[in-house]
Amino acid sequence: xxxxxxxxxxxxxxxxxxxxxxxxxxxxxxxxxxxxxxxxxxxxxxxxxxxxxxxxxxxxxxxxxxxxxxxxxxxxxxxxxxxxxxxxxxxxxxxxxxxxxxxxxxxxxxxxxxxxxxxxxxxxxxxxxxxxxxxxxxxxxxxxxxxxxxxxxxxxxxxxxxxxxxxxxxxxxxxxxxxxxxxxxxxxxxxxxxxxxxxxxxxxxxxxxxxxxxxxxxxxxxxxxxxxxxxxxxxxxxxxxxxxxxxxxxxxxxxxxxxxxxxxxxxxxxxxxxxxxxxxxxxxxxxxxxxxxxxxxxxxxxxxxxxxxxxxxxxxxxxxxxxxxxxxxxxxxxxxxxxxxxxxxxx
Length: 347
Known about the structure:
Blueprint: E1 2-3, H1 6-9, H2 13-16, E2 23-29, E3 32-37, E4 40-47, H3 49-64, E5 83-85, E6 88-94, H4 104-122, E7 124-127, H5 130-160, H6 166-196, E8 201-207, E9 216-218, E10 224-226, E11 233-235, H7 238-248, H8 257-269, H9 274-285, H10 288-299, H11 306-346
Antiparallel strand pairs: 1-2, 2-3, 3-4, 4-6, 5-6, 7-8, 8-11, 9-10
């Protein structure tokens, strides 16, 4: 929506005065305003002040390390990277045309390459407390065991019935595959712990925190840039990959070789260590979406909307099958790579 009346422009004038920018027109794009001004076209974004300090610090750090694929944030005339106004923090960026001249596949590959660069440039080793690692291990194993108990308890109940509900019947068909995924996730997690329990260091990176193809925009020269860095923080690189891949599994069952290509393209620029891969496979295989649906049905009082629950179970089963294909294929490729290395060393 294009707005040029003074009621819409007036609140922005004191903010933009800090940049010596005079607005002519404004377009609303959610919490971003597209500003047409005497100095060109800008994007003005509003965020909560509490996230602002960390956000600016992380962006600064990445700039210093040579990572320039973040949409630039313009400083005010007195050097600040944000303007506090009416209990909100505003920051100014150039407006990205985002006219994609490439196909979808190329865009994803470029996104994952830049993500790998972001992780490479910000990577650092941190000290890890062995007791904290053990506590994390014990809590996770207890949770995985609790999930298995839920599945076992529910199938016992279902099988005692003369007439099962449609949901219960479908669950019985899926039970073995859900349990299999859960066991695989637990096995990989146990392998990760065995490999790392004596380690005193772990690798951390600045994670984007809200990785999405919608948060990767192109300028008019065709270069891609990350936006929406407000959730950036130091953490495991896995935290950027998992949600992105999980969303790509929300389709009917398919051999998602494209997702595998994205991950291996990322590994080309930022290879995971053996322990990181084990943890990644464990989390990727963990069938939590379908377990949550089973738990909701199990705990819900009558009457239950069978059709709604059956549809949810069906969709989460598809998610499970898609993640299963990707995890199995990647573990196969990983094993082939390991054997090839061992063969080369023996020659």
